[in-house]
Amino acid sequence: MKAAVFQGPGRITWKDVPDPGVADPGDAVVRVDVVTICGTDLHILKGDVPEVTPGRVLGHEAVGTVVETGRDVRTVRPGDRVLVSCISSCGRCRFCREGRYGQCRGGGGWVLGHLVDGTQAEYVRVPFADLSVHPLPNTVDSLDAVLLADIFPTAYEVGVLNGRVQPADTVVVVGAGPIGLAAITTARFYSPGRIIAVDLDESRLAAARKLGADATVTAAEGPEQLVQDLTDGLGADVVMEAVGVPATFELCTRMVRPGGRVANIGVHGKPAELHLEDLWIKDVTITTGLVDTTSTPMLLRMMAAGRLPAAELITHRFELGQMEEAYDVFGRAADTGAVKVALGDPQHTVVQVADPPASG
User: Fold this and answer.
1) pLDDT score at 360
2) Which residues form the domain of 264?
3) 215 and 120, same domain (yes or no)
4) What is the pLDDT, as a whole number, of residue 357?
5) Cα 57 to the chain's mean position, in Å?
6) Do 7 and 145 share a structural domain?
7) Which of 19, 102, 111, 332 is deepest in the core (most CB within 10 A)?
8) Is 146 found in the same domain as 15?
9) Is residue 128 situated within a structural domain?
């Protein structure tokens, strides 16, 4: 089969690799119909994730069709259309029993495209399939569903839930890329008083406004002053870091109010300064996290009900074999306007629900 293979920092190649097969009784092999590229994949290309070694097939988000299962798999069978989660769960270790699948110690966690071959390929082997893939109803489009593999549960769990967003809160999201936009969308579940989006790029801020941001500001326009002005000098209740660089993390800690929460979502490849000389007295809570994907079934139900806008985040479409071009476009988002890219050929039948007959 063909796959996107990491060749070392700055290099990725779409090339022939061996087909995957069932290696353990809990495995499923999935034909990839739709896949996307994550900001974490760009961090890998930069060399920020040293656990990913040359020769690894990248990718941890996909929708596809099951073609083979191990003898212990009970929840899916060949022919099922499924969402492949970015997190795999053994279901037996201490952390999995607590619902903290991202910290799995039984061979799961974030393994796809990290410690084992991933989803940016024609086929992928998914370990622990019973807990790591989700059957999809025909009413959910594959292009929507692929965004539930990572960005929506990550934004919701690591940003909104860790940040404990409450009604009437002032929420600041620093970074209006895919994760930041998903954070804005899911923060609205809790009716915050206002959402402020911060980014370098005007097109992404326009997308943030479309998805529910009440105010937007570029980094050059002074986001700290805007937050001060809008909160009578108090600061934001919740600030989410959705970039992954030291400057944005430190910006977040300057914008949070006393007693507020900073939820770090971004993947960091370099140290950031923690200014405890300023923060120690402010009762500030700082959280970090890797997504557990425990929210995926709920988010999938919301999507099926038409209450979770997702496809608006996909700005560019490619064939699966255009992987290298897609990486280039996504990696130059400031020039190309890319928010989220999708590759592949969605294959499913959309079921139309008929209107009820008129009474009388």
Assistant:
1) 41
2) 152-287
3) no
4) 42
5) 19
6) yes
7) 102
8) yes
9) yes
Please tell me whether residues 136 and 28 are part of one structural domain. Answer: yes
Helix (H, G, I), strand (E, B) or coil at 173: strand
**What total of structural domains would you count in the chain?**
2
- Letter string b/e over residues 188-222, b meaning 16 or more CB atoms within 10 A of that residue's CB: bebebebbbbbbebebbbbbbeebbbbbbbeeeee
In this structure, the answer to whether residues 81 and 120 fall within a common structural domain is yes
Q: Are residues 162 and 137 in the same domain?
A: no
**Alpha carbon distances (Å) from 180 to 76, 105, 321, 334:** 32, 29, 28, 15
Return the ∠ at Cα 26 (arms to 20 and 31), rounded to 5°. Answer: 35
DSSP output for 113-171: TTTB--SSBSEEEESSHHHHEEE--TTS-HHHHGGGTTHHHHIIIIIIITTT--TT-EE
| Residue 251's CATH number | 3.40.50.720
Q: pLDDT value at position 7?
A: 96
The DSSP code sequence of 291-357 is ---TTHHHHHHHHHTT-S--GGGEEEEE-GGGHHHHHHHHHTHHHH--SEEEEE----PPPPPPPPP
Whether residue 139 is contained in a domain is answered as yes
Could you read off the pLDDT of 311-353 as tens digits, one per residue?
789 999 999 999 999 999 999 988 999 999 999 987 655 434 3
Q: Is the pLDDT of residue 108 over 80?
A: yes
Segment 44-86, tens digit of pLDDT? 999 889 999 999 999 999 999 999 999 999 999 999 999 999 9
Judge whether residue 354 has pLDDT over 60.
no
Residue 329, domain member (yes or no): yes
Joined together, the tokens standing for residue 206 give 């326009």
Predicted pLDDT at 347: 64
Alpha carbon distance 24, 26 (integer Å): 5
**Which H or E element spans position 223?**
helix 223-230
